[in-house]
Amino acid sequence: LSELLNVEFYGEWLGLVAEFTTKSLLSWQWASNSVYYLLSLWSRLVTSVPYLKGDTPSLLDETVPKITEGFITSRINSVQASFADNSPDPDNPLENAESLQDQLESLPYLCRFKYESCSLFIINIMEPLLQAYTARSRLPASGDAAELSVIEGQIAWMVHIIAAILKIRQTVGCSQDSQELFDAELAARVLQLINITDTGVHAQRYQEISKQRLDRAILIFVQNFRRSYVGDQAMHASKLYARLSELLGLTDHLVLLNVIVGKIATNLKCYAECEDVIDHTLSLFQELASGYMTGKLLLKLESTKFIIANHSRENFPFLEEYRCVRSRTNFYYILGCLVFMEDGPVKFRSFMEPLLQVAVNLEASADAAFRTDVVKYAFTGLMRDLRGIAMATNSRRTYGLLFDWLYPSRMPLLLRAISLLTDEPEVTTPLLKFMSEFVLNKAQRLTFDSSSPNGILLFREISKLIVAYGSRILLLPNGTNIYRSKYKGIWISLTVLSR
C-alpha cells in the first residue's frame, strides 16, 4: 500500500477500482465469481493501513465503508430474486458452504476497518427484518409463505455476515473494548433471533428450505461466537457480557450456554428429516462437550441434564429416521463424553437404561422376528449407539463400566444376531464396527488388573463372533455388490483381529 500511495495516479486508480467493485456487486447475477477476488484486494489494502508511514492519505476511510455497504445490500437484494421459490438450488451460496466461505472470507477485515459505522449499518438492516419475522410468527400458517421465505433468506445472509465478523478479531481502527461492545450489539440481534425461530408459525416450518438455511446460519454464528467468547480458549470479555446483560439479560458464559443448548435440543427434536441440520447441530454440540471448561459448564445446565436423561426416540425422533442413522453414533459419542466426565457407575447405569430396554426387547424376540425390518433397525441402531459410547471411553474406569454392562449379559445377543443375519450387511457392518471400536486399546483403556480374567474373556467373546461370521460369510454366494455383501465385513473382521 505504501508503494501504491507514491504512485501519481493512486487516487484515480482507487476510485476506478471502487467503481468497478460497486458495479460488480450490483451485478451479482453475472459477477458472483469475481466477488472473492475483489474483496480480497480491498482486505489486503485495509490490513496494510497500520504499517503505513508518512502523512499521505490512503483515501480508504471514505471508500471501504461504501464497498462494505454495497456488498451487504447486494446480498439482501439477491434474495428477492433468487430465493423466493424456496427450492433447493446448488448455485445458491446459502446452500453451498464453499461458495459462501469464499464470499465472506475477506468481509470481516473490511467491516472492522470502520466498525462503528458498519455495525450501525448492519443493525439498521437487521432490526426491521427481526420485527417483520417476529410479527409473522403471530400470523396464521396460511399466510404468504413466499414472503416469509424471502425474509428468512435475508436474515440468513445477515446472520452469516455477523458470524463471519465475529470469527475474525483484529483491532485496526478502534480499541479492543470498543470492538467488544460492537460485537455484543451484533451478537445480541442473532441471540434475540434464536428466541423467535421456534415460536408461533415458525415452529411449523421445519420442512421449509429457507427455514433450514436460517437455522444452519444460526449454528455457524454460534460456533464462531463460542470460539471467540465462550470456552477454554475464549478471551475474557467483560465489556461484551456487560452489554449483553443490558440488552438480553445474558450475564455470563453459563446463561449464554443455556440458550445455545436449548437451541441444540430444539433442532434435535424438530429436524428429524433434515440430515444436514442434524449433523451441523451435533458438530456444535460436540465442540461444546469436548472442551474441558465448556463440558463442565454443560453438565450444570438443566437442558443438558434433560438430554442425558431422556435420549429416547420419543424425545429425539431423528433416531428413528433411516437417513440420519449415521448421526446416532456421533450423538451417543457426545452423550458418552458428558456422562463420563462425572464419576459414578450409578449415573452410567441410569443413562444406559433406554439402551438396556432395547436390548431386553431384542433378546425376547423369536429367531424368525430378526428378519423383520423393525427388529433389524432396532438392532443396528443399538450397535451404532454402543459404538458411539465406546468411542467416548478413554480410560480404564470408563471402559470398565461399558465392559461390565456388556459382559456377560448382552454378548449372547450379538452372537445370535451375527449368526442369524450373516447375509444382511446392513446389520453385520454396524455390529463389526462396534466390535472393532470396542477392542481398540486407545489410551491404554483395555489394561485390566493382573488378577482380572476380563482380557481373556473379551478375547473369547470376540473370537466367537468372528468365527460365527467368518464361517458363514464364506459360504454365501457373491452378490451383485460383492464389496458391500462380503469384502467390507471381512475387512472389518481383519481389523478386529489386528487390534
Characterization of this structure:
This protein has 24 helices and no strands. With 499 residues, the chain is mainly alpha-helical. The model has no long low-confidence stretch (mean pLDDT 86).
- Structural class by sheet pairing and helices: mainly alpha
Total beta strand runs: 0
- Tell me the major beta sheet: none
The number of domains: 2
* Percentage of residues in strands: under 5%
N- to C-terminal distance: 58 Å
Proportion of helical residues? 55-70%
What series of H and E elements makes up the topology?
HHHHHHHHHHHHHHHHHHHHHHHH
Low-confidence stretches: none
Average pLDDT reading: 86
Q: How many helix segments?
A: 24
State the shape. Answer: elongated
What does this entry show, briefly?
The chain is mostly helical and 499 residues long. It folds into two domains: 2-247, no CATH class; 334-498.
